[in-house]
Design a protein that fits this description.
Elements lengths: L7 H15 L4 H22 L9 H14 L5 H9 L1 H13 L5 H21 L2
Helix pairs in contact: 1-2, 1-3, 2-3, 2-4, 2-5, 3-6
């Protein structure tokens, strides 16, 4: 994907633009953003590896809050349904991280502390 070829600064700008789509006033725009948040998450994992699930990583600081917002009861059903379907993408992304064998002890420590946090966040968002 193109996201993996961007610099870190460009990736952050891309995420900011995506976040603005998730906050758009038009429900159709938010629905399409909700439909694609899982794909973006997988690309973030491919581009940044385990650092993306650190407490200050892109998933924890940007994508999980967007997921929670899009899955909230304040959204129309069409948006929430799209978000719920992306739970599979979130699980696939976590599986990719576990299958990646180039870990460091710091990365493993981040993984151990971040996975429960990620599971808690996804559980709250699914309510």
């Amino acid at each position: 994907s193109a996201f993996t070829k961007l610099t870190t600064a460009q990736q952050e700008i891309h995420l900011q633009h995506f976040a603005s789509l998730c906050h758009d006033d038009v429900p159709m725009v938010r629905r399409i953003a909700a439909q694609n948040i899982g794909i973006l998450l997988q690309n973030v994992v491919l581009a940044t590896g385990k650092e993306c699930i650190a407490p200050d990583g892109m998933i924890m600081t940007t994508l999980i809050p967007l997921y929670e917002e899009l899955a909230s009861t304040n959204q129309p059903d069409s948006i929430r349904l799209q978000t719920a379907e992306n739970s599979i993408s979130f699980g696939s992304a976590m599986a990719m991280l576990f299958q990646n064998n180039d870990t460091t002890s710091k990365g493993d420590q981040n993984m151990e502390t971040s996975i429960p946090d990620l599971n808690d966040e996804l559980s709250r968002a699914g309510r």
